[in-house]
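Re: the request from the purification team.
They wanted to know what the chain is likely to look like in 3D before they choose a buffer screen. I agreed to run a prediction and write the result into the notebook, where they can find it.
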Amino acid sequence: MIPTQSMSNEIIHPTLQSIRSAIALEVSIACAISYAHTSLSAHISTMSSSFQNSSAFLIGRFAQLLGIFVGWRFKPQQGMNSCDSLGSQKRDRSVSLKPLGKAR
C-alpha cells in the first residue's frame, strides 16, 4: 500500500484513511438520524402518546438496523488486528503467515 498525502501535508496510510472515512460516515448518519428524530418528535407532539411511542420505537429500530448495515459494510479486512470486548487486541488466526526471508 502506498501512503497518500492529505491537504494538510501529513502522510496518511490508506487503512487509516478508510477508517477515518468510515467514522465520518457513521457520524454523519448518526447526526441525520438525530435530526430526523427531533423533527419527527416535534411534528407528532400534538398527537396521541401511543403513536409517539410507536414512532420512537420504529425510529430506534431503523437506527439499529442502519448501524448493523454500516458495521457489516465497513467490517475490518481479513488479517487486521481486532479488539475483544475488553479492548485488548487479538490477532485474526485465519490468515496464514509466510516466513520472512528472501523471495525466490
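For the purification team: Residues 14-43 form the longest helix (30 residues).
Please add any questions underneath this entry.
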